[in-house]
Amino acid sequence: xxxRFDRPVRCGAGHLFTTIWVPLAxxxxxxxxxxxxxxxxxxxxxxxxxxxxPANADPAELAQAAQVHDIRIP
Length: 74
Ligand SMILES: [Zn+2]
Hints:
Layout: E1 6-11, E2 16-20, E3 30-32, E4 35-40, E5 45-51, H1 59-66
Antiparallel strand pairs: 1-2, 1-5, 3-4, 4-5
The protein binds zinc ion.
């Protein structure tokens, strides 16, 4: 369902999408501990996002997050 560094996340406005969450290195977002600041492809706004825990998240939310992926870095 998700590739190695893909993580389902929830933005500050409640949007669900998938983004690339690379440990220790990220060229596209500002890391702020357990969340980070980046552009949300759903609401098309800048926001803080938090990763969903696939083990505890609602399966319906994970499915929704899997449907939207932000732009990949080659
Ligand atoms: Zn959003």
